[in-house]
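call fold(seq) -> tokens
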Amino acid sequence: MWNIPKLQKFVSTLPEPRRIHISSRRFKFCVLGGTFDHMHIGHKTLINTALIFSEKILVCITSDDYVRTLRKIAEDRIEPYEIRKKHVVKFVEDLEALNRIHICTLEDPYSPAITSNFAENLDTIAVSEDPEVLARTFKLNKLRERHGLQPLTILRIPLLRDPYGKVISSTRYRLNDYFPPPRPPKLKLSRNIIDEVRRPKGETINSPQELPDPESFRKKGIVVIGDVAFQNLSKYNYPISVAIVDFRVRRKQINYTILYTADFESRLLDAPPIIPVLNAPGVISTQSWFVVLLAYVQRKPSIIGVYGEEDLLGFPATLLAPNGSLVIYGDPFRNKLVYFVADPDHKERALELLSQMEKIS
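ret:
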């Protein structure tokens, strides 16, 4: 159905589960920079992760003149500054976060964080795990100290990889070498199956302490769906491979920071990528299938940050999960946790319900 078997072939195992740490602490003002050419899901994940971590962000976009000095591959195909800026603004607008960003033009790697009007208020910088980028960031902090400014806390975020294991990059887009997003139809929940969708799909429990031994799923992986369920697992140090959350509880916005390690006082913090997806309530968007697939093929645990509602994403989560992986979700109607091991029977039932949903363009 809808090329789902083709997508399933990319996922034989999930990222190895590890403990993820959650804190209510957020930063005040985070800076990040880039060319943002042919804006792709890697760019969007960097910006989105910074938005989750920080109250405001400063997005610095390289100028056309600066780009020419960088000697990038296929530089003649790099989009003009105004187009790159337009794409950044459109993405943040889709997240309804325009009031939380400032955009500046980047003429060199350091000035915005040292001499701009924003420099004194910055407390954080979001970067990829690229060693050259990290080395440049350490140099930036030394320059800030020389100018009497506090060093920035560094949020190091893994580079995203496509289902073939290749790093997603603008260079690949310029060379027309990229994984095309799958195009399953957008589906809308039908009224006649609401009760069946809400019925628990596995064992119901009261606490993560009642979950199976996570060591049994180290090779296949663990998926958790829902903010309350994710926070409960974090509280009990239960490891995960992928979390699907919308940063809402009972439709109220909540804010929290997510890290691989619990050392929030460190100047270098390793954070999971928070991959954004737009998914309206009562719907499974086309984009959701791609983002779930993407999260499943990363080398480290990742978070899917849903803008809209994550309730129905248990369907792609189940159908794309490798057989033998553990799926956990929160049941808000019974105030319970539900878990099951993904297998052909669960996938067949999920497909049967999907077939009764309304296809929308």
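The radius of gyration is 21 Å.
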